[in-house]
Amino acid sequence: MTVADTRTLDDLTVAVSGQGGDGSLTVTTLAARILSARGFHMYSARSVASRIKGGHAAAILRGSRADRGGLDDDIDLLVAFDDEAVERIGPAMAPNGIVVFDASAGPVPSGHLSEDVQVFAVPFARLAVRDLRRDLYKNSLAFGVLTRVLSVGDAEAEACMDEGFARLPALLRQANRAALRRGFAFADEQGMLDGEGPWRLAAFDVAPRLMISGNEALALGFLVAGGRFFTGYPITPASEILAWMERHLPRFGGVVVQAEDELAAVNMAIGAALTGVRAMTATSGPGLSLMQEGVSHAGSAEIPLVIVDCQRAGPSTGMPTKPEQSDLSMLAHGGNGEFPRIVLSPGDPTDCYEMAIAAVAISRRLQCPVYIALDQAVAQHSATVAPFDLDVAVEQGSVLDAAALAELAEYRRYLITPDGVSPWVVPGTPGGMSLVTGNERNEWGQVSIDPANRTAMIAKRARKIARAIDTLPLGRRWGDPGAAVGLLGVGLEVAPMREAVERLAAAGIAVAALQPRTLWPVLPETVAFVNERRVTHVVEHNDEGQVFHMLAEAGAPAGSMIGMRRSDGLVFTPGEIVDRVLAEARR
Amino acid sequence: MTVADTRTLDDLTVAVSGQGGDGSLTVTTLAARILSARGFHMYSARSVASRIKGGHAAAILRGSRADRGGLDDDIDLLVAFDDEAVERIGPAMAPNGIVVFDASAGPVPSGHLSEDVQVFAVPFARLAVRDLRRDLYKNSLAFGVLTRVLSVGDAEAEACMDEGFARLPALLRQANRAALRRGFAFADEQGMLDGEGPWRLAAFDVAPRLMISGNEALALGFLVAGGRFFTGYPITPASEILAWMERHLPRFGGVVVQAEDELAAVNMAIGAALTGVRAMTATSGPGLSLMQEGVSHAGSAEIPLVIVDCQRAGPSTGMPTKPEQSDLSMLAHGGNGEFPRIVLSPGDPTDCYEMAIAAVAISRRLQCPVYIALDQAVAQHSATVAPFDLDVAVEQGSVLDAAALAELAEYRRYLITPDGVSPWVVPGTPGGMSLVTGNERNEWGQVSIDPANRTAMIAKRARKIARAIDTLPLGRRWGDPGAAVGLLGVGLEVAPMREAVERLAAAGIAVAALQPRTLWPVLPETVAFVNERRVTHVVEHNDEGQVFHMLAEAGAPAGSMIGMRRSDGLVFTPGEIVDRVLAEARR
Amino acid sequence: MTATYTPRNPIWCAGCGHFGVQGALHQALARLEVAPADTLILAGIGCSGTIQNNLGTYGYHALHGRVLPTATGAALADPSLTVIAAGGDGDGYAIGAGHLVHTFRRNPALTYVLMNNATYGLTKGQDSPTAAMVSTGGREQALDGILLGLSVRASTFLARGFARQPEQLVRLLVAALEHARSGRGFAFVEVLSPCVTYQDTYPLWDAEVTDLDDDPHHDPTDRAGAFASCLRVMEQGRVPIGLIYRGGPAAHIPDPGPAHVGLSDLTAEYREIMDGYEV
Amino acid sequence: MTATYTPRNPIWCAGCGHFGVQGALHQALARLEVAPADTLILAGIGCSGTIQNNLGTYGYHALHGRVLPTATGAALADPSLTVIAAGGDGDGYAIGAGHLVHTFRRNPALTYVLMNNATYGLTKGQDSPTAAMVSTGGREQALDGILLGLSVRASTFLARGFARQPEQLVRLLVAALEHARSGRGFAFVEVLSPCVTYQDTYPLWDAEVTDLDDDPHHDPTDRAGAFASCLRVMEQGRVPIGLIYRGGPAAHIPDPGPAHVGLSDLTAEYREIMDGYEV
Ligand SMILES: Cc1ncc(C[n+]2csc(CCOP(=O)(O)OP(=O)(O)O)c2C)c(N)n1
Ligand SMILES: Cc1ncc(C[n+]2csc(CCOP(=O)(O)OP(=O)(O)O)c2C)c(N)n1
Ligand code: SF4
Ligand code: SF4
Ligand SMILES: [Mg+2]
Ligand SMILES: [Mg+2]
């Protein structure tokens, strides 16, 4: 929480927490409308157990003057629907924070909140059931109290709810409005009058922005890049991509298939890609394991394919709703045999949009599989971002049409070329008949075990990457380019890393931060970043240090890298990163 | 070919080559009987295309006084059933070698054999069809000429064939004997009389030996280690393990299932392992890709499981009959999320036997997946080895029976322990009911996303490997332990590496060789081996240097390692390794 | 007594059909007096795939779609166990369809309870392969596990229950468990088990179920007849329930099964095999 | 004319049934005058899975067991192609069984030729899921692709031919190709195609095939009737061939299909979607 004057906030984090089905998200969504109207940048996160009811869930919303794209160190305002919410989130409350507690089942559990935290205990559920006959209305009731805390005028709060619930049936809308007013009334009883709460919100001018998740932005990027075929199989946290595609792709003549499993998904996408269509599939770790044979096949048979991995905590089923970056080694090294592949790694929705476009173009240009590695946080959390650049040229890539084909004396699907990329004619083109196979093959696509041919084909495939390395997406950087201390991380590390750099700079400590967007192959600029510094903290969400080892494999000196890792399902806060950097600097 | 006196050989390589169905293997199998009777060590290899008829195939047999376990640099004696055999193998002929050529379709193609090679052109196929009415008999005919070349007495050759064909119907036996005699007659016509051929075979005393392939030895090791459940799905070059199990396991109360696919195979094995049975599955690269989710699951749920990967050339379908070591990175890094796993890597049949026993014991002791990484050559080629030590104690490992369970106040399936290994009670044990899951879980096996529990569970699983690292199988070493130059390789590299060390020593160049048998985790002794030398050649069958990178990741200095790699489907010969070592030494 | 885990309370939404399934399974096991220590419940991934946590038996959580191979492995390895596989329609009919076909064919002695709610509950309501049961047009697009089972001639026990008809369901589950436990083979029970949150099919199925147990013309030992009966009911837009088919050959159960074979004093037998390789 | 690859000579053993399949497919394509450039043959892995190399069309070699999803992807992406999937009984009935079920259900407009030799030819003669067709006892253990197809109510074309009865086989393939090409959906043709090297079933099948095309009582539009007919024939230890079933709803073919949709000048439409996220 940053406080502009005694009571006016310009960086506020609200958490709403209760059991899974309690509609915590509704409250933060409404709060987002309030903050948005004042020009706050926003970031909205959730933590739910992978089950429908009964899991502990929290919806978190951060609004800030600066564009943060991630969570703050602590929670300013907590709406707690049960004891567990206080137990879990209480210790993360900011000094002088406020807790609005559902006291229906008893008083606030003791021992979890520090002295300075102010508590408003309201029997939300009891009031909702008693006065409105449904437990669910407690959310609107809580929203009423919350807006009073923030000194939002009742009229604005009501208007906000009307808009937010515009699609609900009239009866429900009315009941919710009644609940909201019941909240106001309760606040009145506590002496917290309309517009006179303990806190007040700042307001800023902003340009129009989107509020969008990484999954949604990625899906849009695929569409804009000319993507017209998508296959998926439901899995947390990738399912939103499938849903998005089902909603939007058909209108553009595209095809979306919910496959029977991930094996079908990846092979259907390969089949579509074979016809020249830009195709993509998306999954998470367990599904990606199942797709490994298919990805190796696309690599061997030289088929352009984009595969999205929205990483969740592993191994195996792991913790499906928690973020992790523990499939990266599989992306770089999985699948049988050796084949060219690229791993792109976006850090926020804009990046997701851009990397989707890049992935489609690269896979098409190089005729190979391209992974986009997200993690649960980047995939599912929403942030405000500037509108995307929609003016994207869709290139033909290496596909020859009938006219171009006619220019050739002979067409060889796997022609050995200096850049490793062969001409490609899609089925339906007269005269372009070809054989495509996952066996080793000669230039015509005919199966071959000739040793000389084999050696040439391996070299050809390897060349595709080697020759293209200078064209792959570069990283994003923050901080002081000349700093001796570096921070390096991808995905959900980007936001806290960025913010840590700012805080450290404010404290007089120069730090440079790099988010490599091409994670594999490791780009020369990434190795150079490490080489140029005394020490680089490699920040990542796993236990083994997968990014760390990739860098080391590519030649970055292990001795000058320090792993900053966690894999407990929680994110790094900017403050934690700052502390670790300071701790190292002090040594 | 080493020649004891002018005409007596004590190291001989015979190749028999023609189209796939020509029965080349029959000829080398008979020749092996001749060599065996004289006490030769033997090594038998094959190279066939992955299809039934029409592919070019060669059967190669090396017999030697010293135990070589691999091929020599060149071929001494070639039986060539077609032009292609001469074209492909001709350039690999030893000086003064002999070619027995099937001249049915014309003379020996020119340009492939050096001047000093002696050729016997015999119209085998024509004679076989004309005199015996079936093309197939040309093999026995060729065997007659071959034994004459080697001055094996006709009586011995006939007896040898009688024994070798003992299981054939009498009519076929007679026809083959007639073919053999037709061969003798032809030799007579050429003036190569009984017992008076150009070459003569040495003879030695030897103890009884086995002639066995890596796949067979591994299967036997599994049985002896108490393995009683095997699942597989046919795939080259792993299918022999399935066939072996089907033949032998049921007699011991074991169960063998040919699964519908590799997903079923790995999960059936997991289900069996769950009941406390020692279970294994075997496959090759494409199947291993499909098993990745299952292996990650076994790692997460802490289920003992042995997975054999008989590696073939990739990527994707690749070259199914050719050896490669290009799944190693997948073994070490594949599968979603992070979990403990071990990769053992045998180099010959004895090693396969021993590593199967070790794998069963380790997987049982540590409750985690253990890979055994073979390659096509180790898996399918046969060699003479000393009889195995069958006196193997089968330990209970970490399984508690009802009595041991009763001693506990409380049983927690995932109890956090100093060595990371938890007590384990199998279903059917009264009072030992437990929950086993691939989700993150608490000590009782109940799904949990609690961050502190998560951190403890990750550490527990990682500890299993860290604490056991000193008990994992050590490598085998050859040569001068103090040498500044090292050779390091696994699987099919072992035999030529060993022989190269001997040759280099004979030339006055000290070299040390190491075959790590625990490939992952990389053992301290392996890193030390590299650290102790000026330069270590890391010999491997892949293009990217997978072993090389594993070593580097574990801390071996990349600067003192040189990659010696090939992935064209051919093996390294001892001479090639010698040449590369010399070339580096000269620089 | 050594303490062990405490069975969990179900995590399902109030009203979820899976409660009915759990209750019926509990009763069936009690009726047959199967000891929890001899019972191994393996479950798939899905809301349905949490049932194994709640019953105090040995419980195992398989991979999504792989519950049948895992259960087959366990049942073959230790035939003295009562092995129960459980899971959802996504788990069993989508990603698991191939294994289902092969389990029918292989006919191992285990019981499979498939909780069909015509949706993917856990992942929030996507269409499962039976989703079309609920739509008005294109109902034939719905996969039917019973017809599938009938088409595999090695299948031996096929039944469908409804979570809201507990008496019949208990009866079917008892029959299924007896079938498997007596070694006749694979007992498949699909249960209509509505997902109140994403696809509330209670009203629909209340109206649509047609009980073949009540149909005097239905002969559960006649495969072609059962196929025809089911098709006829389905063509009327209804869902056949009851014991659809029972018959076929008996399963081959290894006895005693690898979990109970001895491992000592076998050196002579091992040597015999090894000697086969001597040259 | 630009030169391209030369079709290969088949690599099959002399006498292999797959020659007959290739010949018939060649004839059927010729009879329908399908241009090689408009034909995409996708094959599985197996001896059968080399047929695509020999016909001069666009050819694709899929992963083992995955030919149907791959072919479905291609057919949906470019409906102007004549898409033919081909493969063996191991490929289609073992590792591919789940996809087969779902392809019946999805009913995409493509033809699938499954060469059943009751063995795994390429990997040297292991038992396939149809191996039990050949054994005397336990024949019901053999999976039957036609019965399986009948059990999925969305299936629209099911036939079985015999490599040694080329005339009928050509006729069935022509009908199948027409079915798929006219957009009615998935045409499944199983061909009995003996493996002379590992499982020579010529004599057996010569004796055992029962042609339902010749049976006046067989009505290929009656699903339950067809099921009963097939079962009856099979219970006599025989193998039904002919056009077993044709019917069902038409496929939904996207038109023109993503391979032919335009990609330019869509910025306004994209913006509309993006604006939905504006706050
Ligand atoms: C390989 C894999 N793919 C996808 C998932 C995600 N997933 C979890 S449960 C589920 C489906 C659940 O549906 P169903 O089996 O019908 O069970 P229900 O929740 O309806 O009881 C899916 C797709 C997964 N866990 N693993
Ligand atoms: C994932 C995977 N598993 C196993 C194999 C090995 N394999 C190649 S072909 C084949 C089966 C061939 O049998 P079938 O499909 O009946 O074809 P046929 O050779 O009899 O024509 C198998 C198991 C493989 N290529 N990929
Ligand atoms: S989401 Fe549906 S299936 Fe899952 S627990 Fe709730 S009602 Fe049951
Ligand atoms: S092995 Fe069998 S299936 Fe393969 S080509 Fe030969 S006869 Fe045909
Ligand atoms: Mg379901
Ligand atoms: Mg076959």
Considering the chains and any ligands shown, give keywords for the structure.
heterotetramer; A: 587 residues; alpha/beta; Pyruvate-ferredoxin Oxidoreductase, domain 3; Rossmann fold; 4 domains; ten-stranded mixed sheet; eight-stranded mixed sheet; 19 helices; 37% helix; C: 279 residues; two-stranded antiparallel sheet; 9 helices; 34% helix; globular; binds thiamine diphosphate; binds iron/sulfur cluster; binds magnesium ion
Architecture overview:
The complex is a heterotetramer, with 2 copies of chain A (587 residues) and 2 copies of chain C (279 residues). Chain A has 587 residues and is α/β, with parallel strands linked by helices. Chain A has 4 domains: 7-201, Pyruvate-ferredoxin oxidoreductase, PFOR, domain III (Pyruvate-ferredoxin Oxidoreductase, domain 3), CATH 3.40.920; 211-385, Rossmann fold (3-Layer(aba) Sandwich); 399-454, no CATH class; 476-585, Rossmann fold. In chain A, the strands form 3 sheets. In chain A, strands 1, 2, 3, 4, 5, 6, 7, 8, 9 and 17 form a 10-stranded mixed beta sheet that branches. In chain A, helix 1 packs parallel to helix 4 and helix 3 crosses helix 6 (170-189). The two termini of chain A are 30 Å apart. Chain C is built from 9 helices and 10 strands. In chain C, strand 5 (119-120) and strand 6 form a beta hairpin. The N and C termini of chain C lie far apart (57 Å). One thiamine diphosphate (TPP) sits between chains D (44-48, 64, 87-91, 115, 117, 119-123, 128, 195) and B (233-235, 262, 286-287, 290, 317).
